[in-house]
């Protein structure tokens, strides 16, 4: 294992510390317990948005803290859910008096720990609503999940619900918008290589010289099948078709097409995948009216990509277009 | 070789096509000859900025086309300079009547081809000035270079000169600003792995299980030395110290600290490098007043990082802070 790290046990704290030093105009790092919140703290009268989960998926979630998106993010240990305590403290730091929305990816540890934190917050008179993102169509139930896994759709939920909160909607309404995104977003990913968790010291799974895992999870959980290396267009079809089937898109509808890198894949390859996915959607009469391409929810240095499609209506489009001022996603601010 | 590509010969055209489809509000792709320009074309009365070079370093350069930065970018074949013809056509597309600045990385092919294109443009009555970026302190002369190589500093030259052009400065003044950045910026990088150029089909160089190349070039050119795997702090010292020596920074000065990923390294590792570099500068009394962390000039899927330090004054800081609206760097737009 060769990595740009010091002690494997210090990776998360050292990395989050560096993140805080690099972006003091946008975020503040609370070291104990560890969470990241907006530089200016909670916004009075605004619904607070908190997300979090195991580290190793950067820029998710700390990269999405800032105006128009999250109020706080809680990085757990590598690929490991944060415990309830930092989630509770982040919830308090995000509370501007209008309640807090927890955005949780559907992994058993995250669901349980955010649930406990929500109960503790309610005991301190903070109203908490939770939504659970489960957009990965690859498999039902998985290594760390009952039901579908939460993956790329999470970035879109955070952006769109964040915009709703920023324009002053109340907790019920922000939660409803988040649920609308969750109902209309689907994803699937493929891995060309494994990744290595620092304290494990060896690859999470083995993949042959000439094998690709279709339907990979963001922690290296098994997908649907292993296939021999294939052209990008074929891999794109194998990811996009199940997504489109599950969404039952009709000709004439508009979508946001999000091609995400797993961390170790060149941007040039992501744009090849994007181009073919765009063509497939056009051939079905579906209009790609918004796009996102890049490394937004990663699995350390894993090579591969995922495709996320979100069905858009006017409200979601307007909220997607709203200004956002985070480290990893910035437009108009 | 496992990659998300179709035919190795189509990687650049397919990728640039996807880039154009994904970002029509920011860029337009000219397919033959291949270049990328602003969606709205040249800005009348503004100095045009053109850069380019071999592909494989994305988001450089096409990701920096847009308001406040480049007017056009010319992607060559993978790791291969574009020929004069597309550079000439991009220069014409970028010309708003106030002349065009070529920003060239110091590689023999790029320097020659941009020089020829500049002569051809002058013959068509477009005034062209050129600046050559040569910020890599690792080695004098290299595999494809007489003198020092142009690396991470290029991103900063494009941003800062772009802001000067956008606020209406003339060609002479924009070139002077670019030269000021070039004089005050230094970089050095390290590789933990090689990368594989698609049409070559095998790694550009061999690096042992436990080896790190210190002073790597962005095409995998040899650096200063190979060392056994070491902690991030030590690698950071080995990159930062030669940069600081070459810049002869004094206590009390301000800098922009740019930690760049080579394409295959997790963001979390880049922030560990950033944190230690920040500490080293602070210990020397140098204030890090601006920062950039991420994959901005890459070498396909290479694992590793480079450190770039730019000495700031008020003018450069103001130009760095100016709004920018490109695909890969966006703030205030």
UniProtKB/TrEMBL annotation, chains A, B:
| Listed EC numbers | 2.7.1.121
Kindly state which keywords UniProt assigns to this record, in alphabetical order: Kinase, Transferase
| UniProt entry tagged with the keyword Transferase | yes
Q: Which GO terms describe its molecular function?
A: phosphoenolpyruvate-glycerone phosphotransferase activity
Domain DhaK positions: 7-329
| Name of a matching Pfam family | Dak1
NCBIfam families the UniProt entry points to: dhaK1 (TIGR02363)
UniProt protein name: Dihydroxyacetone kinase subunit DhaK
Q: Which gene encodes it?
A: dhaK
